[in-house]
Amino acid sequence: MKLLEIKNLRKSFDDLEVLKDISLDVSEGQVVSILGPSGSGKSTLLRCMSMLETVDGGSMIYCGKPAVEDGKYRSKGELKEIKSSFSLVFQSFNLFPHYTVMKNICDAPIHVMKRDKKEVTSDGEALLKKMGLADKADYYPYQLSGGQQQRVAIARALNMKPKMLFFDEPTSALDPELTAEILKVLKELAEEKMTMVIVTHEIAFARSISDKVIFMDGGLIVEEGAPADVIDHPSNDRTRAFLKKLEQ
Predict the structure, then answer these.
(1) At what angle do helices 176-191 and 146-158 cross, to 10 degrees?
(2) Within the chain, which residues score under 50 in pLDDT?
């Protein structure tokens, strides 16, 4: 089943066309990594997917429900339901500094989704245990390392019970040791068949975890396919040049 279908997506900021006719789909249980140089449109695409940015044209369908058709968005009520199908994990964690770890994880499911407090708290405790943070429930974000904060952010996203998780460069704010911590968590989620779209610059990680790799440059999808094709045997000159530069 396709959880996300994007067709002919376009996005400009003033006169700068950042996304030019982007089409892609994400199937249930699939891990899709988006690679590309800075300024290629990767993060803008993710922000459009997660509806933090509005698109100028094209269509987006989530779990069979159209959110945008020919650049026109559905009603607020319909979009609210569609937005519950995904969660976004930011590169800079975006935790509420004045909330404890547990309140960060449980606040939105209780107050936005109106779920039962007892059930949400129980789920929150299980997620903290899964993230290796069972003893940190009453800590505040400033008392945690960057890697711990990112694991809280992932637990918070999972507690919304999404069908898909979007990650915007989840390790770019972390040092190598903490990066390994987060990549391990993402690998475990992939093994559990969590559907994920990950904007990343970690090529080895993308190769090992992805079902599909998308390479973007200049606001276009230049190449897409299995990691063995796109990363190990790219057919496009731009992809080859980008990967070669990273190897140096």
Answers:
(1) 20
(2) none
* Helix 146-158 × helix 101-111 angle, to 10°: 20
Return the CA Rg of the chain.
18
Cβ-proximal residues to 27 (8 Å cutoff; 6+ apart), any chain: 1, 2, 3, 195
Token code pair at residue 124: 């929150």
pTM beyond 0.90: the answer is yes
Give the total residue count for the chain. Answer: 248
Query: What confidence score (pLDDT) does residue 248 get?
Result: 66
- Nearest in space to 239 (alpha carbons), one of 221, 248, 226: 221
Q: Provide the token pair at 115.
A: 């779920």
3-state secondary structure of 221: strand
Sheet-wide strand order for 16-27: 16-27, 2-13, 57-62, 65-69, 72-73
8-state DSSP, 92: T
Neighbours of 109 (CB within 10 A): 21
Question: Between the CA of residue 140 and those of 100, 103, 104, 181, what are the distances in Å?
Answer: 5, 10, 9, 20
Helix (H) or strand (E) holding 6: strand 2-13
Q: How many CB atoms lie within 10 A of CB 210?
A: 23
